[in-house]
Amino acid sequence: MSLIINKLYDEQQKQWLIELKGEVDIYTSAQLKETLLKLIEEKQETVKIDAKSLDYIDSTGLGVLIGVLKRLKQYDKVLKITNIKPSIKKLLNITGLDKIFVIEG
Amino acid sequence: MSKSITDYIKLSIPNKPEYVSVVRLTVAAIANRMGFNVEDIEDIKIAIAEACTNAITHGKKEDKNNFDIEFIVKDDKLTMVVCDSGRGCITDEISVPNLNDPKEGGLGIFIIKSLMDEVEITSNLGKGTIIRMSKNRGDDN
């Protein structure tokens, strides 16, 4: 089990749509970091992550998202996350990260 | 009167990121067998993975080394002990994340402490770190 990242640029909403499938941990977080930072380099727009099929994320994955948010803030953009599973929502809640990411749905 | 039984399970895992998911699956099977509920099993999986990530990140960087995990299974309590032979740079004093200036690292120990019932971290400079953590099975199981 690893991580699949599907990416699409939404011209109308002017944001990146990212679908994460699988697990983000110490093994896969570098892949996520590289992909997201490359997208922001290409177009400095808001990143919206669909976490419907994201089964697991740990502190290394959350660290990547924090790094991505910092980069986005330089361009006055935000990091949105939608369709979060309860176990991941709990993790965002205890770390307080639900207050700095935009949580939708 | 029922007799209290303690079982021990030991794992030795390579210092490689790809093995953390193996530990997660192992602990899920152990906790499931013990009768923990789904939410608790998720907490335990996250906590053990954070401890392993910690051992791999702060332990000896050489791939050929292993680190050890011990599971102590009691009737209503699962204790997990993760030992690495690294630099021993972790302290028990972990602060709450600062959301005004969030850091990419340092969340792991905070997460473990939030999810587990008991956590004890022993870190000796040059000798390594031992993270010992327990989860009690609630009455609702």
Automatic annotation (TrEMBL), chain A:
Classification via CDD domains: STAS_anti-anti-sigma_factors
Species: Alkaliphilus pronyensis
SUPFAM superfamilies per record: SpoIIaa-like
Superkingdom, natural source: Bacteria
Name of protein: Anti-sigma factor antagonist
Pfam families attached to this UniProt entry: STAS
Family membership noted in the UniProt record: Belongs to the anti-sigma-factor antagonist family.
Listed transmembrane segments: none
Residue ranges of every copy of the STAS domain listed in the record: 17-105
GO molecular function: anti-sigma factor antagonist activity
From TrEMBL, chain B:
Sequence ranges assigned to domain Histidine kinase/HSP90-like ATPase in this UniProt record: 13-135
InterPro entries reported in the protein's UniProt record: Anti-sigma-factor_SerPK (IPR050267), HATPase_C_sf (IPR036890), HATPase_dom (IPR003594)
Keywords annotated in UniProt: Kinase, Serine/threonine-protein kinase, Transferase
Record CDD domains: HATPase_RsbW-like
Coiled-coil ranges per UniProt: none
GO MF entries: protein serine/threonine kinase activity
Protein name: Histidine kinase
